[in-house]
Protein: Protein MGR2
Amino acid sequence: MQHVPGGNEPSVWQKCSMGALMGGGVGLTIGFIFGSYSIIRQGAGPRGFLATLSQYMLSSAATFSFFLAIGSVIRSDAQLGIQYGHPVFAAPHIASRADAARIIRARWEEHKKRQL
Structure:
């Protein structure tokens, strides 16, 4: 089946926001785990339990959400080459080492012809 670009897939902005939401959820969870562990080990500090835990959770959520949003945009950008059929991104089907060697030799010969 032929892939139609822009068919029923989300836009880049939607993918970015989905990555940010997932990163926020993961960051809140990780912040809760590590913040609770840190408070149990070292105490809550002068600001109290809730303020310390929320600082751990929010800073972790912000970091995870930032990087997952960027990662989802980069990942969706890399798939554009495949859907538009760029030969650089299209990986050939390799069944064996002999197939791989044959493909490499053919590419090498083609490259040598272009160099001359």
